[in-house]
Amino acid sequence: MSATDDPPADPGTNERATDATQSHGSFPEAPELVTSQWFNTDADISLRSLRGSVVVIEAFQMLCPGCVSHGLPLAKRVHAAFAHDVTVLGLHTVFEHHEAMTPVSLEAFLAEYAITFPVGVDTAGTGTPLPETMQRYGLSGTPSMLVIDRAGRLRANAFGQLEDLRLGALLARLIDEPAAPH
Amino acid sequence: MSATDDPPADPGTNERATDATQSHGSFPEAPELVTSQWFNTDADISLRSLRGSVVVIEAFQMLCPGCVSHGLPLAKRVHAAFAHDVTVLGLHTVFEHHEAMTPVSLEAFLAEYAITFPVGVDTAGTGTPLPETMQRYGLSGTPSMLVIDRAGRLRANAFGQLEDLRLGALLARLIDEPAAPH
Amino acid sequence: MSATDDPPADPGTNERATDATQSHGSFPEAPELVTSQWFNTDADISLRSLRGSVVVIEAFQMLCPGCVSHGLPLAKRVHAAFAHDVTVLGLHTVFEHHEAMTPVSLEAFLAEYAITFPVGVDTAGTGTPLPETMQRYGLSGTPSMLVIDRAGRLRANAFGQLEDLRLGALLARLIDEPAAPH
Amino acid sequence: MSATDDPPADPGTNERATDATQSHGSFPEAPELVTSQWFNTDADISLRSLRGSVVVIEAFQMLCPGCVSHGLPLAKRVHAAFAHDVTVLGLHTVFEHHEAMTPVSLEAFLAEYAITFPVGVDTAGTGTPLPETMQRYGLSGTPSMLVIDRAGRLRANAFGQLEDLRLGALLARLIDEPAAPH
After folding, report:
1. Which helix (H) or strand (E) holds A133?
2. Mean pLDDT computed over A9-25
3. How many Å apart are CA D119 and CA D60, to the nearest integer?
4. Does A111 touch chain D (CB under 8 A)?
5. Distance CA D160, CA D139 (A)
6. Which residues pair with A55 in a beta bridge?
């Protein structure tokens, strides 16, 4: 497994993200987050507590160049454009260089890069370099974006660089959906 | 009146574009296009003939730097991302340097910049440098983007640089609206 | 012959440009410009009249996307950084879409893109789409940059995108050379 | 004291860098580096050992956004363009968030960002957050670029974003100077 320093524009993934809203089929429930610490929030955050909201989670590593240049700026744009309608979270899914990306380093990173939305630290895995939440979602690497609807279902799990126009369309549709499952 | 060589990020306008979909109030009917010539299409195009479709019109001048660097690339991204759901048109609204931006120059421009969607030439005005359609829509300059819903109503008239996330959201909502007026 | 809409990063050419200064060998005299008209200058300009100066000539076509996005911005940066030491000229070498890139269109282009250094119009060729100066220099397409030393010799003839660091080094060396031939 | 997250284009500083080569006046000897550790090199590096070479030092902090987006990419371009003629070094001058930018984090950063030239760790200061070499050079913040001539003299000390054309010119002139002092 390798980091996504140079994340591919992944049309397959993007297509999947868009298709999710076209066919209102059945979607899996988004697994709960497993975190060891949170920044930029007073209380820990769970997906259960966000039920009823559209949630965007940016899974990143602070030393992943593609996250710094593309993934996190996209998350910030979503945070700015959909401030009232979407809950944006970061998830620090460290799966390499663990000793280099500790919470104390992450805290300075968030300050220097002016990231103001809540960021959780994915709990370290046991017997594997992959952290717990990363395993639950089967993430391919970083950056990855997870989109969860009001009913708590996973509507997109996109590795690499998402296109703003398509993401804006997906979010508008999820915002407009009722909270109760179909 | 000046060209928009360096178009301002116009939050007011963008906000208006987004607001349009929030409040399903009453929207004016989009005035019909007044064109003297078309490129990239066999037959002339009217808004009347597109009733039932979501339409995005990029109003530009071929020698407007902001159109070349921002407006037209955005229109191309919309064309690529919403190929099946949105009709993208260009409108060459020449309001200055008229003798420099004739149809023969425009044709070469469209070829060199690989613009493949239909482009109409806004009919020259009488007793004013402003062409006819530009007057009808009260455009402030170029680039401007017009967004028209399935019922033929004008839902956004945005001067300057639009944000992809917000535009994607607006288009998704218009695509999902029924063609008949509310 | 094809236009350079998407000019390749041409390492060979760039290398050649740099090498020119390493080996102070013999360089050919730069052919005189053949122009039909000038903009941004009161009097016509010849290379002969610029003998003693370092001269940079940006050969471009106003409807060549690579010229607009890379070649002309580079020429503007040279003009700003070496205002006192280098004479920057544009040369409109139209070899395609001739009817679309007439002097009247060029004049509006120069105004809209805020190009303030002198720009000559390469004289149309006879029995060939290639203009006269373009033929004399054997240009491969546009954008191309020509660099001429104080002695009137051609020191670089680079097609495509030049690197600023290498160009800065070349110009410094030519500026520091005495005007008299070696 | 503040970090240079958003480094100003500092014309004064750039001008100074260029002026350094115009007037071949007297320049101060560059203070020796004080380092606690090196990466990307087998042996520690001193300026004394590099006497006779043109040296470019990029002073950065791994969590400084301006260093990541501008300073280090410029150093990489210098390394690529002047591989045979200029020695490029990095200097990790941590003056804030010390616990977040330890050598173990720096090592991962260098790997992820593919920085291959030698990088020294500026020795922590005593009774001040400023590290030793940073104090000796009176750096205003990061990124800063230091340029040292073959005689070991400091020819530029530029805070913020340098312009490639001017830097290329400066380096060419220093490369062409004899090693012995004037």
Report:
1. helix A132-137
2. 40
3. 10
4. yes
5. 11
6. A87, A148
State which fold the A27-176 domain adopts: Glutaredoxin (3.40.30)
**Tens of pLDDT along A80-102?**
999 999 999 999 999 999 999 99
CB spacing of A63 vs D112 below 8 angstroms: yes
Task: Please report, rounded to a whole number, the percentage of residues in chain D having pLDDT higher than 90.
Answer: 82
Distance CA C173, CA C168 (A): 9
Touching partners of C (3+ C-beta pairs < 8 Å): B, D
Rg of chain D, C-alpha, whole Å = 15
Burial bucket for residue B50 (CB in 10 Å: 0-12, 13-18, 19+)? middle
Q: State the best of B62, B64, B67, B112 to mutate against chain C, taking most chain C CBs within 10 Å.
A: B112
Per-residue pLDDT tens digits for B119-141? 999 999 999 999 999 999 999 99
* Mean pLDDT value across residues C18-23: 42
What is the signed CA dihedral for A101, A106, A108, A114, rounded to 10 degrees?
A: 130
Q: What angle do CA D25, D30, D32 make, to 5 degrees?
A: 165
Are D63 and A104 inside 8 Å of each other by CB? no
Place of tokens 């370092």: C54
Q: Please calculate the CA angle D63-D64-D65 and round it to the nearest 5 degrees.
A: 105
Tokens representing D100? 């977040």
> Residue D107: which residues within 8 A CB-CB, separation 6 or more?
A100, D39
- CATH architecture of the domain covering B35-176: 3-Layer(aba) Sandwich (3.40)
Q: At residue D14, does pLDDT exceed 60?
A: no
| Amino acid, res. D171 | L
Closest to A61 measured CA to CA, from A32, A101, A33, A88: A101
Residue C149 exposed, middle or buried by CB count within 10 Å (0-12, 13-18, 19+): buried
Q: What angle do CA B77, B81, B82 make, to 5 degrees?
A: 115
- A135/chain D closest Cα distance in angstroms: 22
Q: For residues C156 and A19, what is the distance between their CA atoms, to the nearest angstrom?
A: 53
Scored b (16 or more CB within 10 A) or e, A120-145 reads bbbeebeeeebbbbbbebebbbbbbb
User: What span, in angstroms and rounded, lies between the C-alpha atoms of B135 and D89?
Assistant: 60
Task: Round to the nearest angstrom and report the end-to-end CA distance of chain D.
Answer: 37
D64 touches chain A (CB under 8 A): yes
* Close Cβ partners of C59 (under 8 Å, ≥ 6 residues apart): C90, C91, C93, C122, C133, C134, C137, C139, C142, C143, C144, C145, C146
Strand partners, A156: A147
What pLDDT does residue A18 have? 39
Supply the CATH classification number for the domain D31-176: 3.40.30.10
Q: Which fold has domain C36-176?
A: Glutaredoxin (3.40.30)
| Any C CB within 8 A of B113 CB | yes
Q: Answer yes or no: do C81 and D170 touch at CB < 8 A.
A: no
Whether chain D has a CB inside 8 Å of the CB on A112: the answer is yes
Nearest to C168 among D168, D175, D176 (CB): D168
Under an 8 A CB cutoff, do D64 and A97 touch?
A: no
Angle, vertex CA B113, rays to CA B109 and CA B115, nearest 5: 95
Q: How far is CA D56 from the centre of its chain?
A: 6
Interface check D170 vs C, CB under 8 A: yes
